[in-house]
Amino acid sequence: MARNHILTLSCPDRVGLVAGLAKLMERHDCFIESSRTFSDPETSRFFARLVFHGPDDILSSALTEDLANLGNELNAEWATHPEGETVKALLLVSKSDHCANTLLYGARRKELPIEVVGIVSNNETLKDNFAHWDLPWFHVPVTKDTKPEAEARLFGIIKETGADFVVLARYMQVLSEDACRRLEGMCINIHHSFLPGFKGARPYHQAHACGVKVIGATAHYVTADLDEGPIIAQVTEVVDHTFSPADMIETGRHLEGNALLRAVKAHAEHRIFVNSGKTVVFAR
């Protein structure tokens, strides 16, 4: 059986887009296995993700040419990827290992189509914790004065490892505006709140002091606006007056790992489109 491919496309909305894509696939004897589309009336943008296969295992030059012509006609951003293709991820950590371990375990079990190509940390605290994963470990210390050099080293590591995207798996350093711009659309962060509240130190203690009834975690793309980039995934859990700060921290660890796993999976499966500061995230 021919291998499935994924087509992602976004463009200004107009009549006939779905029909046009279907006719193009029909012309090349391609079978559409699944199709997700969304037209946003607020931004007048159209988004599509098609999983399809043709007569051959690889994309024909004729199909690629037709897609390019259609993309030019529609002023579209589009790409094709083999379904299940492994995407290379670089993990950044500081002193908490739960999020990185969630991703590493998901990758090992083939639940995530990612290949972790290395772990970067601003200290050596977790080096021994990750040794059993047998991955390249990069110690890149960061201070206020050395941030430019540290970020230059980070981008060198990205190039050296061939990483396709970066995951801040509880990396407790703020990236510079320049780094955020260079990593736009290819850097995912996890935030310890359902909404961007309780910023700064001891967030769960702040939440406990306010008597919150719901806690959660938010995974988002990184932008220069701290913890306010386009949201990809959010998970929550109800808590009550019996929860201590320690209980919230423990629950929060599970929520953070879950939200980050969902976000990384959606990114690696090419199911996310950034749409004017928000995201369109298609189900599988």
SSE blueprint:
Layout: E1 5-12, H1 17-27, E2 31-40, E3 45-53, H2 61-74, E4 77-82, E5 87-93, H3 98-108, E6 114-121, E7 137-139, H4 147-161, E8 165-168, H5 177-182, E9 187-191, H6 203-209, E10 214-221, E11 231-238, H7 245-268, E12 272-275, E13 278-281
Parallel strand pairs: 5-6, 5-8, 6-7, 8-9
Antiparallel strand pairs: 1-3, 1-4, 2-3, 9-10, 10-11, 12-13
Please, how many helices? 7
Terminal residue distance: 21 Å
Q: So, CATH architecture of the largest domain?
A: 3-Layer(aba) Sandwich
Identify the strand order in the major beta sheet.
7-6-5-8-9-10-11
Number of strands: 13
CATH topological fold name of the largest domain: Rossmann fold
Tell me what you see in this structure.
The protein has a seven-stranded mixed sheet, with helices on both faces. Strands 2-3-1-4 form a four-stranded antiparallel sheet, with helices on one face. The two termini are 21 Å apart. The chain folds into two domains: 5-82, 2-Layer Sandwich (Alpha-Beta Plaits); 87-268, Rossmann fold (3-Layer(aba) Sandwich), CATH 3.40.50. The model has no long low-confidence stretch (mean pLDDT 93). The protein is of the alpha/beta class and 284 residues long. The longest helix is centred in the last third of the chain and has 24 residues, at 245-268. It is built from seven helices and 13 strands. The radius of gyration is 21 Å and the shape is globular.
